[in-house]
């Protein structure tokens, strides 16, 4: 490793029970929408096989995204990734970090109702919501790599500390 390079630091996403319930509920809805038509009409073996493939692909895709969410500190940027989605945020573009408790709106790469919202100058959305498993350690690492960032969070709001 060159003397200017800093070791990559990886954080996993925090998963809460609410998100698990949403994922299970979504799986039931997907299963019902795929298999219920088979019960209501005459179905061939090909229909059943296609339905099974659609169901497994749908559930597998969501699991792939959810189970692979990582937040990786590289030398010059923070990489937020999950499944096929990757967002590279240069440290110089990060302007603010605040508490994120809006579960519905915005770009989210998290499996928790609450987390952090990182605001940045580049990118289509201008912010991304994440939920590192240890928010306090994550923020310390971010501040070390991006000393000018404004962190608008009360210590009592941090998860994983």
Number of helices: 3
How many strand elements?
A: 9
Query: What strand order characterises the main sheet?
Result: 6-8-7-5-9
Order of helices and strands: EHHEEEEEEEHE
Structural class: alpha+beta
Helix content: 25-40%
Compute the CA-based radius of gyration.
19 Å
Largest sheet: 5 strands, mixed
Number of domains: 1
The chain-level mean pLDDT equals: 90
The rounded distance between the terminal residues' Cα atoms is: 31 Å
Low-confidence segments, ≥5 residues, pLDDT <50? none
Beta-strand content:
25-35%
Shape: elongated
Question: Can you put this structure into words, describing what you see?
Answer:
A hairpin with a 2-residue loop joins strand 3 (77-82) and strand 4 (85-90). The chain is an alpha+beta fold and 161 residues long. The protein is elongated. The protein is built from 3 helices and 9 strands; from the N terminus they run E-H-H-E-E-E-E-E-E-E-H-E. The chain has one domain. The protein has helices at 17-40, 45-67, 135-145; strands at 9-12, 70-73, 77-82, 85-90, 94-100, 108-109, 115-120, 127-130, 150-152.
């Amino acid at each position: 490793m060159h003397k200017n390079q800093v070791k990559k630091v990886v954080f996993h996403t925090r998963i809460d029970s609410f998100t698990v319930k949403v994922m299970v509920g979504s799986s039931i809805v997907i299963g019902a929408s795929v298999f219920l038509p088979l019960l209501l009409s005459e179905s061939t073996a090909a229909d059943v096989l296609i339905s099974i493939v659609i169901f497994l692909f749908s559930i597998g895709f969501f699991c792939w995204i959810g189970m692979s969410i990582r937040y990786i500190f590289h030398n010059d940027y923070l990489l937020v990734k999950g499944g096929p989605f990757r967002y590279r945020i240069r440290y110089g573009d990060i302007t603010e970090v605040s508490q994120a408790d809006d579960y519905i709106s915005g770009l989210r790469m998290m499996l928790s109702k609450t987390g952090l919202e990182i605001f940045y100058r580049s990118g289509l959305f201008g912010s991304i919501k994440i939920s590192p498993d240890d928010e306090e350690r994550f923020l310390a690492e971010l501040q070390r790599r991006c000393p000018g960032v404004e962190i608008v969070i009360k210590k009592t709001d941090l998860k994983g500390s």
